[in-house]
Amino acid sequence: MVAQQIVNGLMLGAIYMLVAVAFTLAIGVLNFLNFSLPGLFMAGGMLAFGLMKAGWPFLLAAAGALAAAAFISLLVERFAYRPMQGGDPEVPLVSSLGFLVLLENLMLVQFGSDQQAFPALLPDLNLRLGGLVIGYAQLASLLLSLGIVAALSFVLAKTSAGRRIRTVAESRETALLMGIDIARLVPQLFVASAALAALAGILFAVNYQQVSPFMGEGVGFKGVAAMIVGGMGSIWGAVLGGLLIGLAEVVSISFIGADVVNITVYGLLLLILIVRPQGLMGRAPSREKL
Amino acid sequence: MSGYLTGVLVVLAFNVMAAYAVYLPLAAGQLNLGIAGFMAIGAYGSAFLTNEYMWPMWAAIPAGALAAGLTGFLIGLPVLRTHGIYFAMATFALGQVISAVFLNLEVVGGAAGYPVTDYAGPNVVFAAAVGVVLLMLYISRTRFALELTAVKSDATVADLLGVPVRGMKVAAFALGAMVAGFGGALYAHHYNFVEAQHFNVLLSVFTVLYVLFGGTQTVWGPLVGAAFFTLVPELLRASDQWRYAVFAVFIIVFMALRPQGLVTAALFRLFRRRAPEASS
Amino acid sequence: EEDLVLGYMMAKSGPYVSLANTNEVAVDMAVEEINAKGGINGRKIKVVKFDTAGDPKQATTAVRSFAQDAGALAIIGPFSSSEVRTTFPVGEREGISQMSMASSAPGLTKGFTYGFRNTTDEGKVIDQVLASLKDKKLPMATGAAAYATDDVVSKSIGTGVVPKMFEKYAIPSKGAVDFQLAAFDLSPQVAQLKQMAPDVVGLGSPPEGAITIAKELKRQGVSTRLIGGTTIADPELPKRMDGAGEMLTIGTTFFPEVNDKTRAFAAEFAKRTKAAGLNRTDPNQMDASVYDIVYLYAEAMKRAGTTGDKAKLAAERSAVRDQVAKLKDVPALEGAISFADGDAVKPVYILEVKGGKWTLLDTRMPN
Amino acid sequence: MSTALEISALSKSFAGVQAIRDLSFTVPKGVSTALIGPNGAGKTTVFNMVSGVYGVDAGRIKVNGVDVTRMPSRRRIGTGVARSFQNVRLMPHLSVLENLLVGQHVRASSLAALLTPYRLIPNHRWKREARAALEESGLGRWADETVSALPYGVRKRIDLVRATLAGASLLMLDEPAAGLNPSETNALRDHLKALMAKGTTLLVVEHDMHFVESICQNVVVLNFGEKIAEGPLSRVRQDPKVREAYIGSDGEA
Amino acid sequence: MALLEVSSLSVSYGRVAALTDVSLRVQEGEIVTVLGANGAGKSTLLKAILGAVPVKGGGITFADTDLTRAAPHKRMGAGLVLVPEGRRILISLTVEENLLLGAHMRRDTVAIRREMDAIYGRFSNLAERRHMLASCLSGGEQQMLAIGRAMMAKPRLMMLDEPSLGLSPLFVEKLFDLICELNRDGLSVLLVEQNTGKALKVAHAATVLELGRVTMDGDPKALAADPRLQDAYLGGAGGP
Ligand SMILES: Nc1ncnc2c1ncn2[C@@H]1O[C@H](COP(=O)(O)OP(=O)(O)OP(=O)(O)O)[C@@H](O)[C@H]1O
Ligand SMILES: Nc1ncnc2c1ncn2[C@@H]1O[C@H](COP(=O)(O)OP(=O)(O)OP(=O)(O)O)[C@@H](O)[C@H]1O
Ligand SMILES: [Mg+2]
Ligand SMILES: [Mg+2]
């Protein structure tokens, strides 16, 4: 039973992890607390659902949902991010939240507030090892997530593109003076983080066979929490944070009860932040020298 | 005044108080995403006093505000070790923990919520909101406000200039918490019912939204933001299911046009420049 | 000639849309029927509407507006328990009746003379479900509870109703698991249930939780009977569970297949919802309840001889209140309805999911 | 003669790099002193330790006779030492005038001062004083600008004015003339001389030797965190070690 | 045709005009210096040439291509580079990453490495700290890094905005030697300097800006002797 709970926690963590990485790209790199990401997570799941309902095969529907999310994210970049440059970092939060509210309400109008059943892709999706039940979809999403994350962290740390991205992260103005094509790079990052969020949403739908217009909020906030626990800007931190939050949640449900989940999970987050203000694997921000 | 208008203005008054609770710490660079938690402390605290100890409202409501302020002070000390988005997340977590604690606190009803017997009428609520606005106007004219902005702008240099950065931060945080608690306490006694579910993340986040939308550069921003967010959905009532979608589009378009919020310092300068021109 | 004005608090946006956005159709239907038959005391019923979005604050605005601006005689709604908590005190101060169609948290009407609910206490419903299982000799040797912790009604079912009823029916309890309303991953809870292996699981949850837990039970290969109250009653639930949840057994206050009246209602309702372009065309228990509320108010106004005269508004409002409180065995869509301590007493229909459809297992009257 | 600043046996290293090694020197009251040395010698680090940005590894620092070695940074300005910054640090959210008002904090830090609604009082003493200081250095027209739009040289001078507003008796200036053209440097020199005449002691880091010569009576030369020479500039600049490490062949700057 | 041709350029920030009708040319292989008081618009001019601030009127031609409306990265691709005012090194990157960033438009990895080593040879302070975060560097070291980073781009025209700021006298000398050396190797230079004397000494041509307008230009020797310039920028009698 404990083993099963750990497996459950890890699988849950994989979802948080992808969302956390999407947030890390947005905040760590673009310095933009992008609250439209939970919306894109939801849009990923809901649109895949909608397209499948309209008769599209799964892969095509998933691709369609990803493309739509990428497109929406470009709108977010255009209307929420770009006009806010040079202001306080918290300002774009408003319109990105505007996008979240908009996406939720559009889905609400289209599909209603009910949770909808996402079709099972295979009749029995489960690997049964001894007493353990592990969903294939979950396993696949864990591996997929890890792969994406590893690739991403390599690009950021070791390549010229990564250096360009980190330059934009530190200062857009300097990046401009360095001849970095911000007008292209930033939208690319938006597309990437949207794709990650939407992919997480699709994997979520496949794993838990459900979608709803509000599915983004809870997962989104836990994703941010995971990112922060791990340390902002650190990709592997996001992985660690995601898994940790997933485990904390499952463990506190099974050993104490669901009424304390928020207390334990967010209490853990609070504690980590107080003890280590930059997160577990985050670096303290480098300050300009006096 | 019609019943409808009273109802809407009461909601506006609560939103204004909440907005200023967010605004004050924000002026010192603190994005408090857990303001609902402090409202809950004020609400439950004062309700407990009037319900169980028969305190009069005029004493219980300030007591609730103080309780929230004190909590802010005590929690602010460790939480203010964090900065920027980490701070925002810490307060977010704090808000979640506080509301989860009340959700499980059976002496105040737990998940079933907590009915409150004493009633504070609309006029009390209006007076309180006006009081909060006046207080904030006053503060914005003092050196305290100036130095809060200095701390936000460059804490290292402010420190070297002798500004007690930590003290300022804690003061701003605790004052914000107190205003939130005050609003919460009134909320409990006006609506005669509190439930932990009401004081959730979305309440915190939306309150922050009022402030940023109105603009943080001047003390009028939160007022305008709260008014916009309260009144525009009322105006959109007719469009029913599209109401919130249309509203969201409004937000996005407005922010794209006025990224620093509706009310900005530049706007004020423009008015000041215009005024003498017009009179001459 | 004055109209008889009723206020109606809708929850057409916000968290309850799916449950509530068809309610309006039912209200309009009832009003049209009554007016077509000549109205009440020779006067037409007129409904003024206000969308509260399920928000307690907006709901108080609605009550103030009905009472002070619209000259309403009584109010249909509000929808949710949270709204009831804030609007009943306002209604009491204003001296105007309200009757909720959905709130089923225990004890909401206590202490209010103007507060009514056309809903049935979940304790009574689950009592009837178990009685029915016992009558039909279905397996119920051991039990467990599963409930959402952050919802009043669900939690009171899980921690109060289910243990008490298990005791009443001498079912040893193997334990309880809980979850959050927004939880999507119930694998840890189901893993625990798997270990307990009970015959019946008493479920305190809205439909969403029921679906999630049913699917997870199926995934982990646990077969047990889920039982629940009106919170789970959603006409489309079997479809939404997509093959899971066989043997789910609940009590509800409305089932369209009961008699000709209900069938006619369902047919007309389907016609109108389709015309309005709504997603769901099967009436749920709130649709039925709100339909009956209009009739209940109509009956009370008839008995009170209400004229709608603005000068006598306060007196007529309290007369309506007095009559509602005294209603007994009024024949209605949901069955015979009486009021006791502000809450309606009406039949409970026991439904079971079989072959992916709701089927009527039993009809019972709570005592 | 009492000392404005007394530094004894100061050491500091960063992650293994020894930035300051066993450094001692004093700045007597009224004797303006220059701290010079090649890039990376540790000059700014000394300022940072005196003002409390960095803690010290070893050694003592006394300002006007008060040992500030372990004093929290924010209280040090109260002992009479203020500084400017090499990389100008003005507060971007505040106007020029407001930046200066923050500079007055040490002299207006009581609770009453903090809660005086000075903005409601026309021509309040603080505003008057800050404006006067601006006018004095010829920057009056920038008073209500936001600082981010200002040219570098102007920002630099505002930074200096802010430091003077603390009313400190010891003023540490980190490259005050950098980014100023020769005539602007002359104006700066006059400004500083006026301050000195009012009794302020200066400790200046500067690479412009003419400027140093005209302001400072004493020079301390650092190289790799160590003092390699001390004395009047005319003598120090003849020192071969100083020539080799710092001034270069033509002896001019 | 000159390498860089700026004609009647106007730039304004909101309603404030920063440059009015400024013309300037840099011939291939020339060093041109721009002088002016604080706020004259020198930095604005360089940023406008790079495309970092929008121009209101006039034109910019570089290597026979009209770049007036081109994005900064296009201009840098064509061979322009700027050592910006205030250094603008990236404090969250290491010293080496800052240098590599300077070469981000190039693909010739081997040459990049070689040039980087040459820069380390020239600026020993940087070599010692190559794997440290750039935030640790002293002011002068940061200036060296900014110059080194610009060299890594291998430009045709290098624009320097007060490069001697914060450098020790010895190093200022080295810097001017470096500029002359790069110039001899064919690099054209547009130099903004407060160290007016030195700048006029190395330049082939000079332009003086005042409140955003060109007030004098021409031969640096002649300018150095011009009494108006003497008064305004060389601190009266003869200068340093
Ligand atoms: N926070 C720090 N972390 C690591 N190394 C540092 C730090 N601060 C300074 N150093 C190092 O200490 C040495 C001295 O730096 P400092 O800034 O004091 O030099 P400086 O004498 O002011 O030089 P410049 O004239 O170039 O400004 C430099 O080599 C620098 O790299
Ligand atoms: N971002 C901006 N917003 C508004 N005005 C600006 C901005 N940047 C510069 N200015 C104005 O443009 C004019 C020219 O500034 P610029 O920085 O080009 O001067 P400069 O010659 O480089 O001065 P310095 O020698 O001090 O560096 C100044 O009046 C300045 O106030
Ligand atoms: Mg230095
Ligand atoms: Mg400049």
Order of helices and strands of chain E: EEEHEEHEHHHHEHEHEEHH
> What value does the Rg of chain B take, in angstroms?
19 Å
CA-based gyration radius of chain E: 18 Å
* Share of β-strand residues of chain B: under 5%
User: How would you classify the helix and strand content of chain B by structural class?
Assistant: mainly alpha
Oligomer: heteropentamer
Strand order of the largest sheet of chain E: 6-7-8-3-9-10
The dominant shape of chain E is globular
- Stretches with pLDDT under 50, minimum 5 residues of chain E: 235-240
Main sheet record of chain E: 6 strands, mixed
Shape of chain B: globular
Question: End-to-end span of chain E in angstroms?
Answer: 36 Å
What's the arrangement of secondary structure elements?
The complex is a heteropentamer of chains A (290), B (280), C (367), D (253) and E (240).
Chain B: H1 3-27, H2 35-52, H3 57-79, H4 84-104, E1 114-115, H5 122-140, H6 143-153, H7 155-160, H8 165-191, E2 193-194, H9 201-214, H10 221-235, H11 243-257, H12 265-279
Antiparallel strand pairs in B: 1-2
Chain C: E1 4-10, H1 17-20, H2 23-36, E2 45-51, H3 56-70, E3 74-76, H4 81-94, E4 97-100, E5 115-117, H5 122-135, E6 143-148, H6 152-168, E7 173-179, H7 187-196, E8 200-204, H8 207-219, E9 225-228, H9 237-241, E10 249-252, H10 260-275, H11 285-304, H12 313-326, E11 330-332, E12 335-340, E13 343-345, E14 348-354, E15 357-364
Parallel strand pairs in C: 1-2, 1-3, 3-4, 4-5, 6-7, 6-8, 8-9, 9-10
Antiparallel strand pairs in C: 10-14, 11-12, 12-13, 14-15
Chain D: E1 3-14, E2 17-28, E3 33-36, H1 43-51, E4 58-63, E5 66-67, H2 73-76, E6 81-83, H3 96-103, H4 111-115, H5 125-136, H6 152-164, E7 170-174, H7 182-197, E8 201-205, H8 209-215, E9 218-223, E10 226-231, H9 233-236, H10 240-247
Parallel strand pairs in D: 3-8, 3-9, 6-7, 7-8
Antiparallel strand pairs in D: 1-2, 1-4, 4-5, 9-10
Helix pairs in contact in D: 3-6
The complex binds adenosine-5'-triphosphate (2 copies) and magnesium ion (MG) (2 copies).
One magnesium ion (MG) binds next to helix 1 of chain E.
Concise structural overview:
By secondary structure, chain A is mostly helical.
Please explain how this structure is put together.
The complex is a heteropentamer of chains A (290), B (280), C (367), D (253) and E (240). Helices cover 75% and strands 1% of the residues of chain B. Chain B has 280 residues and is mainly α. Chain B has a two-stranded antiparallel sheet with strand order 1-2. Chain B is globular, with a radius of gyration of 19 Å. The model of chain B has no long low-confidence stretch (mean pLDDT 90). The mean pLDDT of chain C is 92. Chain C is elongated and about 65 Å long. By secondary structure, chain C is α/β, with parallel strands linked by helices. In chain C, α3 packs parallel to α4 and α5 packs parallel to α6. With 253 residues, chain D is α/β, with parallel strands linked by helices. Chain D has a six-stranded mixed β-sheet with strand order 6-7-8-3-9-10, sandwiched between helices. A four-stranded antiparallel β-sheet of chain D has the order 2-1-4-5, covered by helices on one side. In chain D, α3 (96-103) runs parallel beside α6 (152-164). The mean pLDDT of chain D is 90. Chain E is of the alpha/beta class and 240 residues long. Chain E has helices spanning 42-50, 72-77, 95-102, 109-122, 124-128, 139-152, 169-184, 196-202, 220-225, 227-233; strands at residues 4-13, 16-26, 31-36, 57-62, 65-66, 80-83, 157-161, 188-192, 205-210, 213-218. Chain E has a six-stranded mixed β-sheet with strand order 6-7-8-3-9-10, with helices on both faces. Chain E has a four-stranded antiparallel β-sheet with strand order 2-1-4-5, covered by helices on one side. Chain E is globular, with a radius of gyration of 18 Å. The N and C termini of chain E lie far apart (36 Å). The relative contact order of chain E is 0.18. Classes of the chains: A mainly alpha (290), B mainly alpha (280), C alpha/beta (367), D alpha/beta (253), E alpha/beta (240). At the A-B interface, α4, α9 and α11 of A face α4, α9 and α11 of B. The structure holds adenosine-5'-triphosphate (ATP) (2 copies) and magnesium ion (2 copies). One adenosine-5'-triphosphate sits between chains E (13, 16, 18, 36, 38-44, 85) and D (149-153).
